[in-house]
Amino acid sequence: MLGLNKRDTKFLLIVIGLTLFTPILLQPFPEGSALAQFNAGYPDLMQRFAIFGIFAIGFNILFGLTGYLSFGHAAFLGIGSYSVVWMYKLLDYNVIWGLPVAIVVSGIFALGIGFISLRRSGIYFSILTLAFAQMMFAISYSDLAGRFIGTTVTNGETGLQVYTSDPQVLLGANEPNVPHFFGIVMRENFWEPQVGGWQFTFNNGYFFCAIIAILAFYLSLRIFRSPFGMMLRAVKSNQQRMNYTGLNSRPYTLAAFVISGMYAGLAGGLLASMDPLAGAERMQWTASGEVVLMTILGGAGTLMGPVLGAGFIKYFENIFSKINDNVLHGWFSFLPDGIEDFVVTIIHPFVGKGWHLTLGLLFMLVVIFLPGGLVEAGQRIGRLFRRKSAGTSGDDGEHAPKQAPHVAE
Q1: Looking at the predicted structure, is the pLDDT value of residue 330 above 90?
Q2: What is the pLDDT of the chain when averaged over all its residues?
Q3: Over 60: is that where the pLDDT of 409 sits?
Q4: CA atoms of 208 and 100, how far apart (whole Å)
Q5: How does pLDDT run across 87-138, given as a tens digit for each residue?
Q6: How far apart are the first and last CA of the chain?
Q7: 8 Å CB contact between 137 and 283
């Protein structure tokens, strides 16, 4: 099916099912309950899960397959956002015009940056990509390009946005003046069912991003299983030995860099599709570092790992950062006053503004005990259950003779 074997087809169908049922899966607790704070089924957060999942999938094609660690991928995220907002300003608010432009323009910039950066490898490559990203950030923040041509390009620190004076030559009289897809407004909900104490939100913008994320995941799956993907794995395994065989690895690594940059540009374009604003902050080095954390935390080189890592980090950023002292006092109000204050004081540094501390500790634990990321954790749990199942299904597993180990073992 779709060029995939039976196993990959089953895997893709599971991913599609989980993605489409995300609004339900992320609302495990009824509204009004003490644990409703941990629900993540609201549009803005679900959109970020899908968008940054695309960003991480693209980054994984470069880092996970070739081993080239880029510290400057946020540059392409910002380029994609600026491209989409410019299409809003020139044409209209239909996102269909801006997203292809975001992909193409990001690919062109990735081609130029990759052509120079890939002349080096290891830490030197990483520093070069970081330098390019910081230059792009400085140019965008100061609107340096706009000074040369006499008009704004990025609108500096204010950020690029749409004004009533903009041309918008395709804007119709009855067309929405917010991002939409042929009249389907991104920020609107098309269904809000309530089942008992549970409130579910089905948002146009999320499902638009989700469908694109599924297509992006399918493309990455095909890349991983293709001869091109095998060549990228060979680069990661031993690039020097590969070069000795007479194969030039640079075209493959450059192609991976460009594809990865186009994924990042698509993610940036989707951010502007949800919120018609582009700012230089999307190009900061912290954004590049975030996608590195997402990929490593989920499992670099795996198909599902970057998506899990993106969801994990965005969940902490949006859920744990909102837990303040008032929420904590509400949770532990059943305790005596002195003990309640003590417990809140202990937990306070790890939530709210201190959510980075909790994320950092979890990241350390994953790197130390689960080098393969969250995917490895899932594999270990799966093996544990299979081992238990195999132990209980045997006829006489306890008294069965065991093969003696070889002397060399």
Answers
A1: no
A2: 90
A3: no
A4: 15
A5: 999 999 999 999 999 999 999 999 999 999 999 989 999 999 999 999 999 9
A6: 44
A7: yes
Phi, psi (deg, nearest 5) at residue 160: -85, 130
Neighbours of 34 (CB within 10 A): 11
The string of pLDDT tens digits covering residues 316-327 is 888 888 888 888
- 112 dihedral zone (left: phi>0; alpha: psi -120 to 50; beta): alpha
Element (H or E) spanning 347, and its range?
helix 337-347
Report the distance separating Cα 371 and Cα 361, nearest Å. 15
Helix/strand/coil (H/E/C) assignment for every residue in 286-345: HHHHHHHHHHHHHCCCCCCHHHHHHHHHHHHHHCHHHCCHHHHHHHCCCCCHHHHHHHHH
Quick one: which H or E segment has residue 151? none
Looking at the chain, the number of H-run helices and the number of E-run strands are: 16, 8
DSSP letters, 199-254, are E--EEHHHHHHHHHHHHHHHHHHHHHHSHHHHHHHHHHHHHHHHHHTT---HHHHH
pTM over 0.85: yes
Q: How far apart are CA 58 and CA 295, in angstroms?
A: 10
Q: What is the distance between the alpha carbons of residues 379 and 381, in angstroms, rounded to a whole number?
A: 5
Rounded-to-10 torsion of CA 122, 128, 130, 132: -150
Residue % of the chain over a pLDDT of 70: 95
Give the CB-side neighbour count of residue 236, counting CA atoms within 13 A.
Answer: 19
Confidence check: pLDDT of 384 > 50: yes
Average pLDDT over residues 307-330: 89
- Please state, in angstroms and rounded to a whole number, the distance separating the CA atoms of residues 65 and 401: 43
Cβ atoms of residues 370 and 376 within 8 Å: yes
Range 375-384 average pLDDT: 88
Task: Check: CB of residue 129 under 8 Å from CB of residue 113.
Answer: yes
For residue 208, give the nearest of 106, 98, 104 by alpha carbon: 98
Bridge partners (DSSP) listed for residue 185? 180
pLDDT at 353: 84
